[in-house]
Design goal:
By secondary structure, the chain is an all-beta fold. About 0% of the residues lie in helices and about 35% in strands.
């Protein structure tokens, strides 16, 4: 069914889910039908992966994360414990007439987390958000709008406070070049080009 995949006996993994080789699914996880999980992923205890969710390769999902329908997570993303992805901007249990909402009574709000991004513990990601490559979301942040590549956001609602290298360290401004800020990592000395329109949003 799922070749070269480690699935803990307490996990509930649909036969219709696609799981890449080398992936580990730990205690009390639930992976629903038509979910697609890439190679060498790790799903910690109590992770919920809704139907149709897509995870790339080398994704690490820590304990008790909820990943609901409409989410796509690209390669190399880190998802900290208790992160929650939502998918409905106007959540209600019932319609105005009191009838229970059905599958056709709401509009799906998609979320994309780009390659290499990291989401801190207890972060909440609201619908219709794209989190850019190598971005970092602080613990407990509530992300309500797009995060640029390498952006560092914190708070509720999350606000941009700087930019980070792929190694995770905060970038330091070097000099402007055209419409971009060239910023350097004090740790690995990489130099990245950040659009000035984004750089100037950070305090």
């Amino acid at each position: 069914m799922h070749d070269n995949v480690r699935i803990h006996p307490t996990a509930d993994v649909s036969d219709r889910a696609q799981i890449g080789p080398g992936t580990s699914i730990w205690h009390q996880c639930q992976v629903r039908e038509d979910a697609q999980i890439g190679q060498n992923c790790i799903l910690g205890k109590g992770v919920y992966v809704d139907f149709g969710v897509r995870l790339g390769n080398n994704v690490k999902v820590q304990n008790y994360v909820s990943i609901y329908h409409g989410v796509e997570i690209e390669d190399g993303v880190f998802v900290g414990p208790h992160v929650c992805f939502t998918n409905d901007n106007l959540p209600r249990a019932v319609n105005p007439d009191g009838s229970l909402k059905a599958a056709d009574d709401w509009v799906l709000g998609r979320i994309v987390v780009k390659r290499g991004a990291a989401l801190g513990a207890n972060a909440t990601i609201l619908p219709k958000v794209v989190i850019g490559e190598w971005a970092m979301v602080g613990a407990g942040a509530v992300v309500t709008k797009d995060v640029p590549a390498h952006g560092l956001v914190v708070g509720n609602p999350a606000r941009l406070i700087g930019f980070v290298c792929a190694c995770g360290r905060r970038l330091v401004a070097d000099h402007e070049e055209g419409d971009n800020m060239l910023a350097q990592c004090p740790n690995c000395h990489a130099i990245l080009s950040i659009p000035l329109t984004f750089w100037r949003q950070a305090p």
